[in-house]
Design brief:
It contains 10 helices and 6 strands, in the order ααααβββαβαααββαα. The chain is α+β, with helices and mostly antiparallel strands. Strand 5 and strand 6 form a beta hairpin. The N terminus is likely disordered.
Length: 211
């Protein structure tokens, strides 16, 4: 669920914060701090050296970059082309992961030129191409945050040292997203969210991709 939320809402995560807005969910910070202490008690400073606070211009420059994928494997020659930008360098290497567009890359092309050859790939545009309702319902965090079936639902964001699930309410987690400065942020990994009415509602919003 969380990975889909990342895909459908321009959150700008990984240590980078969402645009902040005033919210009425007082106490979310304490809830997040408690979850972090339980999930990773050995990690004392989740923001590490405070880079996001100390170097705001650098953080702003990261947000403006067209792509976060800048890892290359020299010598991995291929004739497969990145459908959104050129993925090959003059040496014949391909950028990893390959950034693909579902509107211009068919399932067959992906399977033959990327999946079969073991090339890690990011495929953009699948939800829009396949008509997921989430592309309409999840475009505004406030709609999820204020959904009566979801806002107070607990989602798993980690486990403590004893293997017990650490959970946060969705409304508190969204507030955490908006103010996130953590180098290694909390994520929602909840395999049981489909066991109630709110979770089943989310299941109707997306489908298993055809890729």
């Amino acid at each position: 669920f969380f990975h889909l939320l990342l895909r459908l809402v321009p959150l700008g995560l990984s240590a980078l914060p969402l645009p902040h807005r005033d919210n009425a969910h007082m106490g979310w910070r304490e809830k997040a701090d408690r979850a972090k202490r339980l999930h990773r008690p050995s990690l004392k400073n989740w923001a590490r050296d405070g880079m996001a606070w100390s170097f705001p211009r650098f953080v702003e420059s990261l947000n403006k970059r067209p792509s976060n994928y800048e890892t290359f494997i020299p010598g991995l020659a291929t004739d497969a082309q990145d459908s959104s930008r050129s993925s090959s360098s003059s040496s014949g290497a391909i950028s990893v992961p390959a950034i693909l567009d579902a509107n211009t890359t068919s399932v067959e092309t992906f399977q033959q030129q990327y999946e079969a050859r073991g090339i890690p790939s990011v495929i953009r545009g699948i939800p829009e191409k396949e008509g997921w309702p989430a592309t309409r319902r999840w475009t505004d965090l406030e709609r999820l945050e204020n959904d009566p079936d979801l806002r107070n639902r607990l989602f798993k964001v980690g486990e403590d040292d004893g293997g017990k699930s650490v959970k946060m309410k969705l409304k508190h987690f969204i507030s955490y997203l908006r103010d996130n400065r953590d180098c290694s942020p909390l994520y929602i990994f909840d395999s049981a969210f489909d066991e109630d009415r709110g979770g089943k509602q989310l299941l109707r919003d997306y489908a298993v991709p055809s890729y």
